[in-house]
């Protein structure tokens, strides 16, 4: 206890003399610590979260020292729309609360501008976290210095008040309730409609359960619908086994890789088994084989998805990108005639998406225009909060406009 407190205090840069006092007396009063509720009571607009703490005392009473709590403000809960319904589901609320607690001191000033760190949370229940080390949040410091938390479904919250101290660590006040990452299917259907061709192909080959849903810890390179559209007449000429190999080549099992952790010229062993993907960095761009990574670090329940602009081909794993090109050429020998090209081309495999209760399949297939190099790669579903505007394109530009953060500078968890 005393040890934990001391180590937190040293992280918070308290003078050594005070640490000595803490060690001798072992008393929280010496360092003017306060419990979570008193600290939150000193801030405006945090009443909803304070009520949840009272409703779920166990989660907060048992916290060890050295934690960081992301506290959504009242407006964040109002934005949920269905809060009353939400609040009655004990399993859900408990999971969400745990997803807001990071078992580390994560100080906002310690994050370097342009850097993104992944912070595991206390949500380790395998039902919500089929991932090593607990479900994660991503914390990104924007060029302007504000820190944005990203959760599942691209749901983002900006830090409104940072580094408030309490006796077990820090509080960061955010303006959205973080959303627990869900499976690839749910994520593609609800938030990233630009992966529906890839998802449909996984269902068309009966690979979804085996390769994706049943896996723990995966990194997935998901081609955009536009990438599939370019191959609309070619892919149907592949046998089911060939298509399976192609799809397996997009999945790196057993590891969840944050994109900037992937070193230049490194290779990733894929579920395809025989060939490996090569990572290439060029200026501030990153490529997987010849495909450019358009959007990085999309959180799904069991890993991370990186959206790429080309369908990868295990048999063309030696093909590098044309780093000057706006979009990469297909790495399949094109066959068949595509009467319609570009955004009007058919979106392969979306007809294989299983129908849900309300059968949104037709809607998704027909109403989501795709393609064009500058289009937002992040459409639909739970949309960005007002603070963050059109984050699909912005995020992409933002990543490309900054030096990729040095992976070694990230906090190690
Ligand atoms: C508190 O919430 C109200 C209503 O949403 C808002 O008008 C006010 O600016 C908020 N105060 C602070 C300090 O954020
Ligand atoms: C409660 O939440 C859990 C976890 O999110 C979910 O699986 C379950 O279906 C919800 N129950 C109800 C009655 O909505
Ligand atoms: C990445 O590696 C390739 C091949 O080894 C090399 O040509 C390229 O210059 C490297 N890029 C960076 C940014 O170091
Ligand atoms: C293609 O994959 C094989 C098997 O992993 C590897 O030996 C080969 O070097 C790869 N080619 C390139 C250019 O990455």
TrEMBL record:
Entry keyword Signal: yes
Keyword Signal: yes
Gene3D superfamilies: FAS1 domain (2.30.180.10)
InterPro entries: Adhesion/Biosynth-related (IPR050904), FAS1_dom_sf (IPR036378), FAS1_domain (IPR000782)
Record-annotated FAS1 domain positions: 33-178, 182-312
Keywords linked to the UniProt accession: Signal
Signal sequence residues: 1-33
Name by which UniProt lists this protein: FAS1 domain-containing protein
């Amino acid at each position: 206890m005393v040890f934990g407190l001391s180590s937190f205090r040293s992280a918070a840069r308290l003078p050594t003399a005070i640490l000595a006092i803490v060690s001798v007396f072992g008393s929280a009063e010496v360092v003017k610590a306060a419990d979570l509720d008193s600290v939150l009571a000193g801030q405006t607009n945090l009443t909803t979260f304070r009520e949840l703490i009272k409703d779920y005392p166990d989660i907060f009473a048992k916290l060890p020292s050295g934690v960081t709590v992301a506290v959504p403000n009242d407006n964040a809960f109002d934005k949920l729309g269905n809060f009353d319904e939400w609040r009655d589901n004990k399993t859900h609320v408990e999971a969400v609360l745990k997803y807001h607690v990071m078992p580390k001191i994560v100080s906002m000033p310690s994050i370097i501008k342009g850097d993104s760190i992944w912070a595991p949370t206390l949500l380790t229940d395998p039902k919500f976290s089929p991932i090593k080390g607990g479900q994660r949040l991503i914390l990104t410091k924007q060029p302007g210095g504000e820190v944005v938390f990203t959760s599942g479904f691209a749901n983002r919250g900006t830090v409104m008040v940072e580094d408030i101290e309490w006796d077990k660590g820090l509080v960061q006040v955010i303006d959205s309730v973080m959303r627990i990452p869900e499976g690839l299917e749910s994520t593609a259907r609800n938030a990233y409609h630009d992966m529906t061709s890839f998802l449909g192909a996984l269902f068309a080959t009966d690979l979804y359960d085996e390769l994706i849903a049943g896996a723990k810890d995966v990194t997935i390179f998901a081609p955009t619908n536009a990438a599939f559209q370019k191959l609309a007449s070619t892919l149907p000429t592949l046998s089911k086994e060939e298509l399976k190999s192609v799809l397996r080549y997009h999945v790196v099992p057993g590891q969840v890789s944050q994109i900037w952790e992937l070193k230049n010229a490194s290779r990733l062993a894929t579920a395809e088994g025989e060939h490996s993907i090569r990572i290439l960095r060029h200026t501030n761009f990153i490529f997987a084989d010849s495909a450019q990574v358009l959007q990085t670090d999309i959180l799904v329940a069991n890993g991370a998805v990186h959206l790429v602009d080309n369908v990868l081909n295990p048999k063309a794993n030696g093909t590098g990108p044309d780093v000057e090109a706006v979009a990469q050429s297909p790495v399949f020998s094109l066959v068949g005639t595509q009467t319609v090209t570009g955004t009007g081309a058919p979106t392969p495999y979306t007809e294989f998406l299983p129908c849900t209760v309300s059968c949104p399949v037709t809607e998704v297939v027909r109403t989501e225009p795709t393609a064009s190099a500058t289009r937002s790669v992040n459409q639909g579903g739970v949309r960005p909060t007002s603070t963050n505007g059109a984050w699909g394109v912005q995020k992409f530009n933002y990543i490309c406009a900054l030096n990729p953060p040095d992976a070694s500078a990230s906090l190690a968890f």
